[in-house]
Write a structure and sequence with these properties.
By secondary structure, the chain is of the alpha+beta class. The chain has two domains: 142 residues, Lipoprotein like domain (Double Stranded RNA Binding Domain), CATH 3.30.160; 122 residues, Immunoglobulin-like (Sandwich), CATH 2.60.40. It is 19% helix and 43% strand. It is built from three helices and 17 strands. The strands form four sheets. Strands 9, 11, 12, 13, 14, 16 and 17 form a seven-stranded mixed beta sheet that branches. It has a five-stranded mixed beta sheet with strand order 3-2-4-5-6, with helices on one face. Strands 8-10-15 form a three-stranded antiparallel beta sheet, with no helix packed on it. Helix 1 packs parallel to helix 3 and helix 2 crosses helix 3. The radius of gyration is 28 Å and the shape is elongated.
Length: 289
């Protein structure tokens, strides 16, 4: 019973303090993990990636890579039989998972490979409870080693870190009156190395609208998410958003917000912390009287 207590305590401490050495210097920022019958390993890998400041996307949109984890499992194979009892005395455990990494365009980054761990396990029929605890500890150890193999494979990916671009609104005043000229610009404060989509929203009370350019006038409002401008090149760092004379009958308090996102993705209003964001969300408030 004392041995069982100590073994159980070790398992508890082990499961609470799961930390892997290595997996440092990961050279990517955004990743999507697709699990097919490998949820336990996928969940642990996602946790470790987050600890390394890697953002886990909810969809493949905006991901630098897609990690496929499939067919997690553990098999047993009989190795020896007791000469005295005729029963199984030793097993071989095989813990495995299939791993593959591709770009969103289906370019292969890491070929499909089965990662596996083999361990021998002796079964003592005179101490069934202790043997059960020992077997569980061995399975947890093998699980950790498989996760470590996944992380080591991810270390070889050289996709580049994506830094968040700092942006600000310029030209917005605290108060306007009917007939005033309204001008709003968006300025990049840091240099980026990738194209982006620009989103511009206007809020009044509980109403939220997306602003986009218009052929008939300088801008128009949209109730459904729609980008102000798409695939903005890295050479364009200043953007003239709005420039018009304030008409009558639009008094009220307004909030303008702008953000960059990964080019070609849809802004998810339910998840503004999504990894598709490529900049801070800048906000400006004004009152029209």
């Amino acid at each position: 019973m004392r041995i069982l207590f100590i073994l159980t305590l070790l398992i508890t401490l082990n499961s609470c303090g799961f930390h892997l050495r290595g997996a440092k210097g990961l050279d990517f920022s955004y990743i999507y993990i697709k699990s097919e019958s490998a949820d336990a390993i996928a969940a642990k890998v996602m946790q470790l990636l987050k600890e390394q400041d890697v953002s886990i996307l909810k969809t493949a949109d905006g991901a630098q890579a897609i990690v496929y984890l499939r067919n997690q499992g553990i098999g047993e194979r009989m190795i020896t039989i007791s000469s005295t009892t005729g029963k199984i005395a030793e097993f071989e455990l095989n813990f495995h998972v299939d791993m593959e990494v591709r770009r969103p365009d289906d370019t292969v980054l890491l070929e499909k490979r089965r990662l596996s761990i083999l361990r021998d396990y002796r079964f003592d029929e005179t101490a069934v409870l202790a043997a059960g605890v020992e077997s569980e500890m061995l399975r947890q150890e093998m699980f950790r080693e498989i996760v470590a193999q996944v992380m080591r494979r991810l270390e070889v990916l050289k996709l580049g870190k994506i830094q968040t671009t700092k942006i600000k609104l310029k030209g917005l005043k605290a108060n306007y009156f009917i007939g005033d000229n309204f001008q709003l610009d968006l300025i990049e404060k840091t240099v980026r190395s990738y194209p982006v989509d620009i989103w511009l929203t206007l809020s009044k009370g509980t109403d939220l609208f997306f602003l986009t350019p218009s052929k008939d006038q300088s801008w128009q409002i949209n109730q459904q998410p729609k980008a102000w401008q798409t695939s903005v090149p890295i050479t364009k760092r200043r953007h003239h958003l709005l420039n018009f004379t304030i008409p009558a009958d639009i008094e009220g308090k307004y909030i303008f917000r702008a953000v960059y996102t990964h080019s070609g993705t849809t802004l998810d209003l339910q998840d503004l912390n999504s990894a598709i964001l490529r900049s801070n969300i800048v906000e400006g408030k004004t009152i029209i009287e």
